[in-house]
Specification:
single chain; 148 residues; mainly beta; Lipocalin; eight-stranded antiparallel beta barrel; 1 helix; 52% strand; disordered N terminus; Lipocalin family protein; signal; Lipocalin-like
């Protein structure tokens, strides 16, 4: 009888810790609205082992490059670089976005819309991916961002 009670109590405590470990940055409450620093790119060919590469585009002496999703549906892709006077300058591609469930559609500067699948969205991290075919092979590229 005591072993059964101990097992039930242990199980209840374990479930309590498990439920408590699911933080507020998990699940549907997270919002895409905000500024997101480029962090890394993950590439996978035909479902093989993914290759992860840290983002190398940040200009030394400038803030990090980022994407910004605004509440009104506007979108900005910002790359910072030092101009000839060594002043950090923004190069911006503007556009619009729409998010429905885990589908993200981005249209920059009136170009054709691009559709991505959001694979992770928390208060601190955004991941979205797209798959294309090249030479009969499926290439999946996932961009990983960290919240500013």
């Amino acid at each position: 009888m005591n072993k059964t009670k101990l097992t039930v109590v242990s199980l209840a405590i374990a479930l309590g810790f498990l439920a408590n470990s699911c933080g507020s940055d998990d699940g549907p409450g997270a919002s895409i609205v905000g500024k997101w620093d480029y962090f890394k790119t993950i590439t996978q060919v035909e479902g093989q082992n993914p290759i992860s590469q840290n983002y190398q585009g940040n200009e030394p002496g400038c803030d990090k490059d980022y994407q910004e999703f605004l509440a009104d549906g506007s979108y900005r892709d910002v790359v910072l670089f030092q101009n000839q006077d060594d002043v950090c300058t923004e190069s911006v591609d503007d556009g619009n976005y729409a998010k429905e469930g885990d589908v993200l559609t981005v249209q920059e500067n009136g170009e054709n819309p691009q559709t991505y699948t959001i694979t992770k969205l928390t208060d601190g991290e955004l991941r979205y991916s797209s798959t294309t075919q090249n030479g009969g092979l499926d290439f999946t590229v996932t961009l990983v961002f960290r919240k500013k």
